[in-house]
Each structure stands twice: as C-alpha cells, then as structure tokens.
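In the design runs reported in the main text, the only information available to the sequence generator was the tokenized backbone. The following block is the verbatim input for one such run; it is reproduced so that readers can re-run the procedure and compare outputs position by position.
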C-alpha cells in the first residue's frame, strides 16, 4: 500500500476518492516533478471523481506528454497526483488513404475531361 498520509488533505481526499472508485496507484515517488520534501503518485486511469480543473486546495494542469496526461498538485507544488498518458492514436491506414486519394484524382480527371471534351 502506498503511504498517502503525507499528502495535503485536499489531494489525499482526491486519492482516496479515486481508490474508492476503483482506480489504483501504480507508482509513488518523491522525485521529479515533486521536490525531495514532497511526493507524487501515478494513477492507473485518469481521474473521474472530480473535474480536471483547479479548485479549492487543488490546482490542475493538463499535460499531454508521453509520461502523463494531467497533474493535480498543491499550491506549493510539493505533492502531485498524476494521470497516466493518453495512448497514442492508432496508426493511419495508408492503404485507405491511398485509395481515397486515387478516387479523388480519378474524379478530378473525369471532371476535367468532361469540361474539355464534352
């Protein structure tokens, strides 16, 4: 079990609400982004028990990076609740893209031919 008793009350309440809602803590540390005097926890899933915005006692910053998607933190930026990164979108279907471009080209060629020769 991760020790969350060191977190400020507002962040501790957020963590407890998430745990009660079925989210889990996957990592805890007292390194960056927290200073050694603070700590952070990474949740398995994004926060669902409150809006992803700054509110009383908790600040929020959206971060779309490969390491996290958002962070809730205290006013001193000593304690953080981090959300996991958003998975990257699926790779583009290059065959479908080529087929669409070919169809557009064909339609354009036909329209040009009709204007020129008919």
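Verbatim output:
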């Amino acid at each position: 079990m991760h020790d969350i008793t060191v977190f400020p009350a507002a962040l501790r309440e957020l963590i407890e609400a998430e745990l009660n809602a079925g989210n889990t803590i996957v990592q805890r540390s007292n390194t960056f982004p927290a200073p050694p005097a603070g700590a952070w926890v990474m949740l398995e899933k994004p926060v669902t028990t409150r809006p992803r915005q700054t509110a009383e006692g908790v600040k929020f910053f959206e971060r779309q990076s490969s390491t996290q998607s958002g962070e809730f933190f205290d006013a001193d930026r000593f304690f953080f609740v981090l959300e996991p990164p958003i998975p990257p979108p699926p790779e583009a279907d290059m065959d479908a893209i080529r087929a669409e471009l070919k169809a557009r080209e064909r339609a354009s060629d036909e329209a040009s031919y009709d204007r020129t020769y008919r």
